[in-house]
């Protein structure tokens, strides 16, 4: 199964007790060495790299239409391009977009 994950999900793999883990390194929950090890784990996954430049117009349209950040909208644009779902730990993002866009919150994946 293919899907797009955002940084909040990847962070939860290494800090499962963190409610929203995107800023964990800055808050020193992970050392630089631990962060590098986490990056190596992610690099070892079978990933598809998508050039962001090919998604800028669609990303802007999503951001404007759904009042989302450009950053979050880029993840959604990748999911749309790859014909799959974005999986996020950001419940607010999922609640704001899941009815209209391919976004799944990790708390609702059993649905």
CATH topology: the name is Rossmann fold
Highest CATH level, the class: Alpha Beta
Beta-strand content estimate: 5-15%
So, CATH architecture? Answer: 3-Layer(aba) Sandwich
SSE series: EHHHHEHE
Computed structural class: mainly alpha
The radius of gyration over CA amounts to 14 Å
Beta-strand segment tally = 3
Can you walk me through this structure?
There is one protein chain. The protein is mainly α and 111 residues long. The chain has a single domain, classed as 5'-nuclease (Rossmann fold). It has helices at 7-14, 32-44, 56-66, 70-81, 91-97; strands at residues 4-5, 86-88, 103-105. It has a three-stranded parallel beta sheet. Helix 5 (91-97) links the parallel strand 2 and strand 3. Helix 3 (56-66) packs across helix 4 (70-81). The two termini are 16 Å apart. The model has no long low-confidence stretch (mean pLDDT 83).
Provide a concise account of the structure shown.
The protein is mainly alpha-helical and 111 residues long. The chain has helices at 7-14, 32-44, 56-66, 70-81, 91-97, and strands at 4-5, 86-88, 103-105.
Write the layout of secondary structure elements.
Blueprint: E1 4-5, H1 7-14, H2 32-44, H3 56-66, H4 70-81, E2 86-88, H5 91-97, E3 103-105
Parallel strand pairs: 1-2, 2-3
Keywords for this entry:
3-stranded parallel β-sheet; 7% strand; single chain; 3 strands; 46% helix; Rossmann fold; 111 residues; globular; mainly alpha
């Amino acid at each position: 199964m293919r899907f797009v994950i955002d940084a909040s999900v990847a962070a939860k793999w290494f800090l499962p007790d963190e409610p929203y883990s995107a800023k964990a390194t800055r808050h020193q929950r992970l050392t630089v060495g631990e962060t590098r090890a986490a990056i190596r784990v992610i690099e070892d996954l079978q990933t598809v790299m998508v050039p962001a430049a090919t998604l800028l117009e669609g990303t802007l349209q999503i951001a404007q239409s759904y009042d989302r950040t450009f950053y979050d909208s880029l993840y959604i644009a990748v999911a749309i391009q790859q014909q799959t779902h974005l999986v996020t730990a950001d419940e607010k993002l999922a609640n704001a977009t899941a009815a209209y866009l391919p976004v799944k919150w990790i708390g609702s994946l059993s649905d």
